[in-house]
Amino acid sequence: MKILYAGGGTGGHFYPIIAVNRAIRKIAEENQILEIKTSFLSTSPYDKDLLRQEEIQFTWIPAGKMRRYFSLLNFFDYFKMGLGIIKAILNIFIDLPDVIFAKGGYASFPALVAGRFFKIPTIIHESDSIPGRVSVWAASFAKRIAISFPESVHYFPKEKVALTGQPIWPVVLGGNAESAYATFGLQKGLPTLLVMGGSQGALKINEAVLSMLPFALRNFQIIHQTGSAHIKEVTDRAGIILEKENFKARYHPVAYLNEAQLRDVSQIVDVAVSRAGAGSIFMLASWETPTIFIPLPHAAQDHQRENAYAYAHSGGGTVMEENNLTPHLLFEEINRLISDTELRKRMKAGGRNFAKKDAAEQIAKEIINLALEHS
Description:
The protein has 375 residues and is of the alpha/beta class. It has 14 helices and 13 strands. The strands form 2 sheets. The protein has a 7-stranded parallel β-sheet with strand order 3-2-1-4-5-6-7, with helices on both faces. Strands 10-9-8-11-12-13 form a 6-stranded parallel β-sheet, sandwiched between helices. The mean pLDDT is 93.
């Protein structure tokens, strides 16, 4: 059985593919499907070591981004896209897959065109509440469409759609509270705030957190994922701000939280502050963590804002617009959640009801079924 994955070389596409791949191999082993061959066509491998570990063969293809505004880059990207389509057609012709699983985005477009040319069954998964243009285009010929947010159903043929949620990488679930306390030097019995600005960090969120440190640390301790590009500046500034403060040991900036750290932190965090990418939303929902989402204001199609409000309707989180973000307002909202035990219980229930921890398994089963039908 041959399965082709397609999507952008970003964590938002990469980790759901990894989660689905693991679920496919588990189901195949349980059902004695002897051979599974998987490959990934994209503009970037994102994590070569993990692809190798997961036995996924990577093939690079170029793909152009079609911008909604005038740019000379659009002209050159037409050629990149054409080259990518030719390369995808040749690659698929040489090693015909039984099914294609695509995460959308422009990086998946060449593989989707090639798959349509060869009439290969295709499943697409849309992470965001407002789908991207490639996903909407591919819906006309895709056999199945998996969506993360119920609001997405209006953009696709209803008879093809299943609300699966976002596949969560299993390694961020579970964890050990004692390990988290030891790793970060945290105080037991003191409320813990987790701040995440996405994998690259978020400058505006970092600024707000730094400004509120002198009064916030009296009430709670903070694990702050700053992003690799910002860690030195944030650490240096925090050292100056907290030089004469008694509670400076309660602030723990880190460049990036790895999977083991995230898994352990999930066991002790009381409230989180986060950007509103689909991966972050579903991870925090699966943790049942009450969260204040600060959407990236210039995300494509404003998808982070739409994601945040769609999740807020479930009761699992609240939304603070970046243009309203001030240190005192952020502190007051965090403190409101930490101080209100009943509210946090309701928000935990909202996250629990929203999260679909079996998303990867649902999608994997459908991929295998289509592959078996095709082969």
